[in-house]
Amino acid sequence: MKPVRVGICGLGTVGGGTFNVLTRNADDIARRAGRPIVIEQVAFRSFNPECDITGIKTTSDVFELATNPDIDVLVELIGGYDVARELVLTAIENGKHVVTANKALIAVHGNEIFKAAHEKGVIVAFEAAVAGGIPVIKSLREGLGANRIEWVAGIINGTGNYILTHMREEGRAFEDVLAEAQALGYAEADPTFDVEGIDAAHKLTILASIAYGVPLQFDKAYTEGISRITAEDVEQADNLGYIIKHLGISKRTEAGLELRVHPTLIPKERLLASVYGVKNAIAIMGDAVGPTLYYGAGAGAEPTASAVVADLLDVARDITTDHHYRVPYLAFSGIGEQESDLPIMPMEDIVSAYYLRLLAVDRPGVLARVATILSEQGISIEALIQKEAKEGELVPIILLTHCTREKQMNEAMRLIESLADIAGPVTRIRVESLDEQE
Amino acid sequence: MKPVRVGICGLGTVGGGTFNVLTRNADDIARRAGRPIVIEQVAFRSFNPECDITGIKTTSDVFELATNPDIDVLVELIGGYDVARELVLTAIENGKHVVTANKALIAVHGNEIFKAAHEKGVIVAFEAAVAGGIPVIKSLREGLGANRIEWVAGIINGTGNYILTHMREEGRAFEDVLAEAQALGYAEADPTFDVEGIDAAHKLTILASIAYGVPLQFDKAYTEGISRITAEDVEQADNLGYIIKHLGISKRTEAGLELRVHPTLIPKERLLASVYGVKNAIAIMGDAVGPTLYYGAGAGAEPTASAVVADLLDVARDITTDHHYRVPYLAFSGIGEQESDLPIMPMEDIVSAYYLRLLAVDRPGVLARVATILSEQGISIEALIQKEAKEGELVPIILLTHCTREKQMNEAMRLIESLADIAGPVTRIRVESLDEQE
């Protein structure tokens, strides 16, 4: 059988992993694909000593691969936006299939890329862009294809989960654990992408489009990081039976789609609550299947390579298939005219329960004033913890509310913060049930 | 686009669910498949009042569907061995693709069925045969296709997990919870298939073949049920930091493949330990991806239908694909000549840690005699609990051993049981680490 010839752009962590997995498991991969998958050329700027590239054609110019007539599939593992976009569009223009692990590229430029690929009749596969080695794109797009998807919620950033895990297990502060994670290489020198939820929002944007058949709309995702979570919040959540996780959540509602990344209290008994360290997991609710969950490594050289090579296997099988019968990029066929027009809801229209932490001056009547404000906004209280006051100190008040519209909560918080008895801003963390035992 | 025409055989729980999901989500399914999937004919003996079959052609003879020239895909949901086998082979003989949820059929007659299907160039899809709605066949066969699979371990029988969950949570006896499960419809009047592990062994056999590319060998699976687990064992396991789950386990070792279903102590912190009630979950370890886990409903009308319809989507997409490039039935191409010849190991060659519970006469030296026997078989003890003796009663001794070969353990148990101080048979439950955090 004619082999599928691959060009790998980038030989860093994921590129090196992909090179090594393709080489090490070549025989089994050929038996699975029905034909060999061979590395035709590799483009890289700095050599990866973990790869034995003896006999492989190399270059420092990734665009050489995009035009090389001996390459069937370009594997984009250079990361970033602009060069990656140009590289992928050039490869498509030259009739090549594309496999990428680049979540930022797909979330931001995916609509343009898929349009170009559709016109050329080529595959663009991106399993590795979400949750590393977990085959969640395949599961959602094919395995749950019978379902109307109701919601998706996931731990899709390993760095954030590592930090929250250690804050909880060791009662430590955010900054402290972040510094440790940076020292260990689990967090970047500039951790913004991870801890502020941008990376998770990229992945959630992709998952939501596949779940509901809507265009990619990263700019409409609500993004809130974990940098303001304190050891006190982690402990109070624990006392109330919850664990704080940084989740990407997308729900289908009557009014449209929710698309939001933020710290979230979830009940301790959820499987998502037991996902520790850098691991990822995604819970998906379908109307037929009910709740399902997918767990594994969300990053790392070989876990991500596992997803890249799985995409290559799909390309190898579908390379001769009529383009119309291939799995659509965003799960539903008909680019443009057949996409769902469900709008992404503004954050103030979402409905959630809330955890609030206030610091109050220890004077009679504070609680009554807070309760009155909540009541006037139609928000009912599920639980309340008021710690004993120490002489001259502010008293923390912890509240759990029932579900309410975010708009009402924003207004209530504004009013509470304007009270003379309340010191500083109110800490607000959303609470989700996400019942996967249903 | 030309629709794919489906004939559904059986309109019971899963047949009815499949009918309803295909009907309810028809528009979305067509957008996903690239063409409509229409129900051409339904065969059933007793009508399912949950289905609106207005305008659908019906028959009481399933074989009519196997020869109906207007049907492209036969969906076998009648269950059982003999008629199902004949039905599926007849459909294949008539050039039809087949989708089935029948684990017993695939585990026992799969090799014959795949051979016939391969010769005819038709698809036989069976996602629903393992773990209901969880897309674990697709994940293992395609999503993890880059990997050399190291082990698979799963809770793949909901009835057994329901019983063990309630035994643990309520400290109740096996018979007691079983009777309740039967009253609630979670267990059959004859529960043998579920509680003795036969159903789980069918599913494990299928998973192992897909994981390692070996022929289906149900007759070589070791099967041990949960009917001898006592409330005492559940409690002692808990004290030691473990939970007892009924697992299907298949590992790749130097000597061959392990293929075994039995009650198993697993550490409490494993995700598998937090899978409650009738839910299923499968952990899979790959050399590149590391540990992954898949969770969801393992049975039920619509969860199982979700998997059946996902298979129909695959058939709809691949119906015009050259058979050679379709995903191979058992993951690896080349029926016959290219299968792996890794042998299934006899149970006495497997290596495991063990939990032992003995009842001893309260006399000095019993423990020394037991320890000596274990030591002479090369078995070392990890933990030991000896309960305080009550006047005139037998003393329970609980032991956890380090890993040893099952053969040595069998011999040690024989010698221990022959001691005059030991009453009755030794209870032995295997202990597995199955680390999914690695």
Protein model, in words:
- 2 copies of one chain form a homodimer.
- The first copy, chain A, has helices at residues 13-24, 26-33, 62-67, 82-93, 103-120, 136-143, 158-170, 174-184, 192-195, 198-212, 231-239, 301-318, 366-376, 406-417, and strands spanning 4-9, 37-43, 57-59, 73-76, 97-100, 124-125, 149-155, 222-223, 242-253, 256-257, 260-267, 279-286, 290-297, 351-360, 381-386, 395-401, 404-405, 422-431.
- Chain A is α/β, with parallel strands linked by helices and 438 residues long.
- Chain A has 3 domains: 4-133 and 301-325, NAD(P)-binding Rossmann-like Domain (Rossmann fold, 3-Layer(aba) Sandwich); 139-297, Dihydrodipicolinate Reductase, domain 2, CATH 3.30.360; 350-431, ACT domain (Alpha-Beta Plaits, 2-Layer Sandwich), CATH 3.30.70.
- In chain A, helix 1 (13-24) crosses helix 12 (301-318) and helix 7 packs across helix 8 (174-184).
- Chain A is elongated, with a radius of gyration of 24 Å.
- The model of chain A has no long low-confidence stretch (mean pLDDT 95).
- The interface between A and B is large, with 77 and 77 residues.
- Strand 13 (290-297) of chain A pairs antiparallel with strand 13 (290-297) of chain B.
- Chains A, B: Residues 355-431 form the ACT domain.
- Chains A, B: Belongs to the homoserine dehydrogenase family.
- Chains A, B: Pfam families: ACT, Homoserine_dh, NAD_binding_3.
- Chains A, B: Its EC number is 1.1.1.3.
- Chains A, B: It catalyses: L-homoserine + NAD(+) = L-aspartate 4-semialdehyde + NADH + H(+).
